[in-house]
Amino acid sequence: MRHDLFIAGFGGQGVLLAGNLLSYAAIIEGKNVSFFPAYGVEKRGGAAMCTVVIADGDVGSPVIGNPSVTIALNQTSLDKFGAKVKPGGICIVNTSLVNLDAFDRSDIEIIRVPMNDIAMGLGDARMVNMVAVGVYVARTGAVGSATLEEALKNALPERNHSFIPANMKAITAGAEFAIAKTS
């Protein structure tokens, strides 16, 4: 089993936290993982992206030329990286911020998720990344949903552990949306 994921958005959307969370969950499950973050010097508002490779066997390189799954949290990310998704792959798109009219890929599955709307419905716009994680985990099974709560204890600083229930609620909302879309 091997899962490779590319997440892109702008600083402040929690791109790196989402990748870090998935990495910790994979480690807890005894899988091999590679996490490769990249962001602009300005962080908040600038480009942010990361790759996560989860595998039962060896993980050679954290660099993914053509990911199996891409999560695009904003328009720039889809415009820049949407064409790189491997044929037969999946592109999970935040339709709250992304217009798909010009994105023409019939060789991949496009999962349209109004992530900002879901996060706002939960009462916190900052939960967009956790909604995305929920969709990804429900759709791919890369890590178990139950493992994510434990992984949040590692991914979040201790002073933010009080937010774990809210994060889990957003992950669950994303997973439920993904399951409803495939039913």
Quick description:
The chain has helices at 15-28, 75-81, 115-121, 128-140, 145-155, 164-182, and strands at residues 2-10, 32-39, 47-55, 69-72, 90-94, 109-113.
Architecture overview:
The protein contains six helices and six strands, in the order βαβββαββαααα. By secondary structure, the protein is an alpha/beta fold. It has a single domain, classed as Pyruvate-ferredoxin Oxidoreductase, domain 3. The chain has a six-stranded mixed β-sheet, sandwiched between helices. α1 crosses α4, α1 crosses α5 and α4 packs across α6. The longest helix has 19 residues. The relative contact order is 0.17. The mean pLDDT is 93.
Gyration radius, in Å: 15 Å
Separation, N- and C-terminal Cα atoms: 24 Å
Q: Spell out the CATH superfamily.
A: Pyruvate-ferredoxin oxidoreductase, PFOR, domain III
How many strand units? 6
Q: How do the SSEs run, as a string of H and E?
A: EHEEEHEEHHHH
Percent of residues in helical segments?
Answer: 25-40%
> CATH fold name, please?
Pyruvate-ferredoxin Oxidoreductase, domain 3
Number of helices: 6
Q: In what range is the share of β-strand residues? A: 15-25%
Shape: globular
CATH class placement? Alpha Beta
Flag low-confidence runs: none
Supply the helix-strand structural class.
Answer: alpha/beta
Largest sheet: 6 strands, mixed
Strand order of the largest sheet: 2-3-1-4-5-6
Per CATH, the architecture is 3-Layer(aba) Sandwich
Give the integer mean of the pLDDT values: 93
Oligomer: single chain
Supply the number of structural domains.
1
